[in-house]
Amino acid sequence: MEIEVARIKEVLERVDARWSLRSLRPLSRRARLLRVDSEDRAEQLVLLTHGEADRAFNPDIARDEYRLLQILSAAGLPVAGPLALAEDHEPPFLITSFVRGAPRFAAEDVASFCRQLAGALGAIHAVDIAEHDLSFLSRLSDAVAAALAEGRGEGRIRAALRAALGGLRWHESALLHGDFWLGNLLWEGDELSGIVDWEDAMLGDPLADLGKSRLEMLWALGAEAMERYTADYLTLNDALEASSLPVWDLWGAARLAHFASFAEDAEAARRMKAQYDEFVEAALEAL
């Protein structure tokens, strides 16, 4: 998604007239790394955009992510600081500070790794949504209804979700990251340094975040690490009723049914398919 360099420079000058754009390069499908200089220092910033499908679903997605980052930064979460919002551009974009670190998909100290992941997810869910006005975010219940209406996921998963959701006791709504997985977590050495990609954030049952991330953990680190991470999270959040977790495991499976599209190769796709099937069967049996 191309944005004219002159437009980027104009927005940067709004933030700090001393900044001079030196270079930019892609970081991901929606992020670009900006290198800027001022009279006394050089630094890195990030430009974020959103795809057509996301903007069609929520025309205010850039503004919403910017507002959310303002709130989370003020609350002390390890997120990028929002610096500028260009709502008058098509597509809208925002510029944030750069969070140092890189994703990790393996760990020597699995216990510490899982404990930090659980703590990070718990910190997100602990954000006080009564104190901070997050009413602009979408609702998990709407996302679930839309996914079922669209036929997302296998038929048996959709049928089980429809049956279970009818009698489910939802936990009190919390802030959800919406896409909490290892690719959106940054590390410096052995310490978790940042949580990125908040465009899917919503309000809803915190176990929905846990269920999806459990499947991602299974693929990355295996069943033992997945269960350790789950136990750490539930220990930190012992007021939650864990018996409803299989429902949200199925929700995660329905959302990630396209896993073959991001598998590294055919062998990885076969392994992920076997793990996916075991994960789904376990959730169905637990209902």
Describe the protein:
This protein is an alpha+beta fold and 287 residues long. The protein folds into 2 domains: 5-97, Phosphorylase Kinase, domain 1 (2-Layer Sandwich), CATH 3.30.200; 110-286, Aminoglycoside 3'-phosphotransferase, Chain: A, domain 2. Helices cover 46% and strands 17% of the residues. Helix 4 crosses helix 8.
List the helices and strands and how they pair.
Elements: H1 5-15, E1 20-26, E2 31-37, E3 42-48, H2 52-57, H3 61-74, E4 82-86, E5 93-97, H4 110-125, E6 138-139, H5 140-150, H6 155-166, E7 174-176, E8 185-188, E9 191-195, E10 202-204, H7 206-221, H8 223-236, H9 245-255, H10 266-286
Parallel strand pairs: 6-10
Antiparallel strand pairs: 1-2, 2-3, 3-5, 4-5, 7-10, 8-9
Short structural summary:
This protein has 287 residues and is an alpha+beta fold.
Q: Cα distance, first to last residue?
A: 43 Å
The top-level CATH class of the largest domain is Alpha Beta
Measured by DSSP, the beta-strand proportion falls in 15-25%
Helix content: 40-55%
Tell me the number of strands. Answer: 10
Order of helices and strands: HEEEHHEEHEHHEEEEHHHH
Strand order of the largest sheet: 1-2-3-5-4
Mean pLDDT: 94
Instruction: Kindly report the CATH topology of the largest domain.
Output: Aminoglycoside 3'-phosphotransferase, Chain: A, domain 2
> How would you classify the helix and strand content by structural class?
alpha+beta
Radius of gyration: 20 Å
Largest sheet: 5 strands, antiparallel
Domains, number: 2
Principal-axes shape call: globular
Count up the helices.
10
Q: How does CATH name the architecture of the largest domain?
A: Alpha-Beta Complex
Looking at CATH, the homologous superfamily of the largest domain is Aminoglycoside phosphotransferase (APH), C-terminal lobe
Low-confidence stretches: none
